[in-house]
Amino acid sequence: MKTMNIIAIALLACSLMTTTAQAASSKSKSAAKQINASEDIDSLGGNQELMEMAQKIKSTSRSRIVQERIVDRNNTLEFGLSYGSVFGGDAYVKTQSLGAQVDYHITPRWSVGVRYYDFGNSLTSEGQRIYDDAKAAEAAGGRALPVDIDYPLNSTIAVVNWYPIYGKTSFLDMGVTQFDLYLLAGGGNITLSSGSTSVMTGGLGLGAWISKHVSARAEVRYQRYEDQIATGARKLDIVMGSLGLGWIL
Questions:
Q1: In whole angstroms, what is the distance from residue 220 CA to residue 238 CA?
Q2: At what angle do helices 37-46 and 48-56 cross, to 10 degrees?
Q3: Are 140 and 117 contacting, i.e. CB atoms less than 8 angstroms apart?
Q4: Among 16, 96, 181, 241, which one is least packed by beta carbons within 10 Å?
Q5: What single-letter DSSP state applies at residue 57?
């Protein structure tokens, strides 16, 4: 009987030791499986291969951020051609213009230039009516009243351009276009049918830099000069609008 008790105690002791060992082993495995989130995240960011794979993934929606100017306009020349119309001024004449210009871009913010305009003129409906009445009166033996006009022939103007607003846009996702809103001011000489006189101008424009060498411009300018008609000198305030293309060297 005493022997049986000793055997039972020995078996109980072995069972307790086995249970304790299994619990310790399980605890050790659980500790080994714990995740250090900061280290894992850091290792993901530091894994060059994973980073390259992530960068190659293309999203269906993308936003473009462009910080540098597309066109370098430091110490560059721009040559251009333009077509425009005159609004206001003499009610008897409608005037259109063909222009050529050279701009020297000192910096992206400032440029100076010279512009030449050749004007084409025709009578408005009111001017044509007065002209026809005068011809009819002359043909009938009466007194012909002339159409009292003084129309522009050409002008040469020096200007200073300031570009305070700059931006970029993407048209139909075909590419990024750089544009500037600018102010201009200047003066020069205008040749009229009665002779030459001084002219002052000021206005604003939009320049779009289509590529590194091609530009497009839209301008609206105010001009003031004095012409000569039969009744004497008069001051004219006119507005010119023009569209043009340029080539940047």
A1: 11
A2: 70
A3: no
A4: 16
A5: P
